[in-house]
Amino acid sequence: MATSGIGGIGTGYNFGYNSGYNSGMDYDSWVNDANQKADELKDKYTSTESTSGTSGSKDTSSTSGSSSVKNKYGTVSTGSAYLRNYQMALTDLEDSAAALQIYEKDNVFSKYEEALKKADEAAQSGDADALKTAQENVEKAFGNIVSAVKTFVDDYNSTISFLKNNNGMTATAADDLASFQRSTLTDKALQTFGLSKDKDGYLSVDEEKLTETLEEGYDFVKETIGGQYGIADRVGNKATKILDSSVEQILGTNKTSSAEETDKKTNSTNSTNKSSSNYSLPDGMTSFANFAKSGAYNLTNYYAVGMLLNTIG
After folding, report:
1. Burial of 307: CB neighbours in 10 Å, binned 0-12, 13-18, 19+
2. Sheet of 195-197: strands edge to edge?
3. pLDDT at position 58, please?
4. Residue 203 — φ and ψ, nearest 5°?
5. Integer Cα distance of 88 and 82 in angstroms
6. Angle at which helices 231-243 and 128-165 pack, to 10 degrees?
7. pLDDT reported for residue 40
8. Are the C-beta atoms of residues 119 and 106 closer than 8 Å to each other?
9. How far is the C-alpha of 115 from the C-alpha of 111, rounded, in Å?
């Protein structure tokens, strides 16, 4: 962890990379820019004697996560259990993603930068005790970034594992799984800053390499993980979108035939035939799904509504 030169670190945070990311940039341009910066950072490492033995390697023997992904949220047998466990998985993932998103309050990057600022002020004040405390706070804040990335990866893998293990429970599980897996960068880009993706789509963290890359290319890692279009941003937004979806959408029971859609658009018929589902719900869930027509009955507040109804009567 490189804080030995903390007395000379100013509020400009000269880590060797300026973010260079335009908030108005479209996603394809951002990905191209991120991949280019990843290549530049990789070239920098492989051309440096002190890091050539670690940073250019694809060995993930010191990683955490992918080699021992746990079935944290279980394999379920009913629609209600699927909703309950999926909600827990998505909520955890949303929270761990938010900790890394640079526009979220109290994210780990802003806390680290604030700690650096206070350390710089302490160094300029000449107060040795204050400087020591400030340096300890910088060390802790830096470690919190690494820990937050590891937590995010664990929650991401747990969500992916849940969807894989319950792929047949709903008509949308496979689509959600594919969408989450598309939310990450290429494996080549991920490996540049200590993450990697295996053939099954699970992420892993090389903590040593992540630490090293944060020290050498802080702004790049910050933007690629927590900035606009960053991994945490895309995955977190996906989790939020699903949590805000109706139960019918999540269970895949709100699809209508093209003929029914045409009738609705032209108002040519007042047919009493209801939209047919392309998926057979588990016993006991059909009536609930038909009842939950409104977006108010989404995955986020489904259980809150149930608790309220139990309290009332």
Report:
1. exposed
2. 63-64, 203-206, 195-197
3. 34
4. -95, 155
5. 10
6. 50
7. 58
8. no
9. 6
Dist. CA 265–CA 231, nearest whole Å: 38
Q: Which residues of 261-282 are buried (b: 16+ CB within 10 A; e: fewer)?
A: eebeeeeeeeeeeeeebeeebb
Amino acid (1-letter code) at residue 190? L
Residues in CB range of 296: below 8 A, 6 or more apart: 305
* Distance between first and last Cα of the chain: 58
Vertex 253, ends 251 and 258: CA angle to 5°? 145
Q: Report the 3 state secondary structure along the chain.
A: CCCCCHHHCCCCCCCCCCCCCCCCCCHHHHHHHHHHHHHHHHHHHHCCCCCCCCCCCCCCCCEECHHHCCCCCCCCCCHHHHHHHHHHHHHHHHHHHHCCCCCCCCCHHHHHHHHHHHHHHHHHHCCHHHHHHHHHHHHHHHHHHHHHHHHHHHHHHHHHHHHHHCCCCCCCHHHHHHHHHHCCCCHHHHHHCCEEECCCCCEEEEHHHHHHHHHHCHHHHHHHHHCCCCHHHHHHHHHHHHHCCEHHHHHCCCCCCHHHHHHHHHCCCCCCCCCCCCCCCCCCCHHHHHHCCCCCCECCCHHHHHHHHHHHC
This prediction's pTM: 0.67
One-letter identity of residue 140: K
- The token pair at 143 is 């470690």
Q: What is the pLDDT of residue 237?
A: 96
**Could you say which residues of the chain have pLDDT below 70?**
1-68, 254-313
pLDDT at 278: 41
- Yes or no: say if 262 and 58 are a contact pair by the CB < 8 Å rule: no
Contact 55, 39 (CB under 8 A): no
Please state, in angstroms and rounded to a whole number, the distance separating the CA atoms of residues 14 and 11. Answer: 8
